[in-house]
Structure formats: C-alpha cells, structure tokens
C-alpha cells in the first residue's frame, strides 16, 4: 500500500516534470504541484482511454504507454489550467 503510493508519487513527479518541460511558458509550481499535475494527467488520459476504447482499469503496473499517456494528459491539464488562469 505505501509502496504503491510512493510509486504513484514518483511516477506523477516524473510525468509532470516532463509535461512542464515540453510545454513552453512559465508555470510557477513546486514539486508537489508538479507531482499532482502528472497524476492528474494520468487519471485524465486513463479516463479518456476507457471512454473512447471501452477498456477497464486493470492494474498492470507502470508501462511505457501509460507514462506517455500521463505526459500527454499532464500537458492537457497544464494547458487547461493556463486557460483558466489568464486574466482578461
């Protein structure tokens, strides 16, 4: 249980950091928010994948495709956050 939580946190931190690196612009957020960004991106892409392709949420561990999905989801979440935080 604790090992799974640590794995999710490290996975989220790496995916969120890569999403922030690949998305140009300045985003003032620390390690915790970057970790949350990666985890939120992973959840978003997992949800979208299950809706689009009808697959269930099986626990098969960390896979390269899941990491890529988490990074893409992190980029989407970051762009959504930026669109809401822009002042008119």
**What is the number of E strands?**
0
Structural class: mainly alpha
Q: Report the average pLDDT across residues.
A: 79
Distance, first to last CA: 45 Å
Strand and helix layout:
Layout: H1 2-22, H2 31-53, H3 64-85
Protein model, in words:
By secondary structure, the protein is mainly α. It has one domain. About 75% of the residues lie in helices and about 0% in strands. It is built from three helices and no strands. The chain has helices at about 1-20, 30-55, 65-85. The model has no long low-confidence stretch (mean pLDDT about 80).
Concise structural overview:
With 88 residues, this protein is mainly alpha-helical. 75% of the residues lie in helices and 0% in strands.
Keywords:
single chain, 88 residues, mainly alpha, 3 helices, 75% helix
């Amino acid at each position: 249980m604790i090992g799974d939580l640590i794995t999710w946190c490290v996975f989220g931190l790496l995916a969120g950091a890569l999403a922030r690196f690949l998305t140009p612009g300045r985003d003032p957020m620390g390690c915790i928010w970057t970790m949350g960004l990666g985890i939120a991106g992973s959840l978003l892409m997992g949800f979208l994948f299950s809706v689009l392709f009808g697959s269930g949420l099986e626990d098969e561990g960390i896979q390269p495709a899941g990491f890529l999905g988490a990074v893409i989801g992190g980029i989407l979440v970051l762009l959504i956050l930026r669109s809401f935080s822009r002042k008119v």
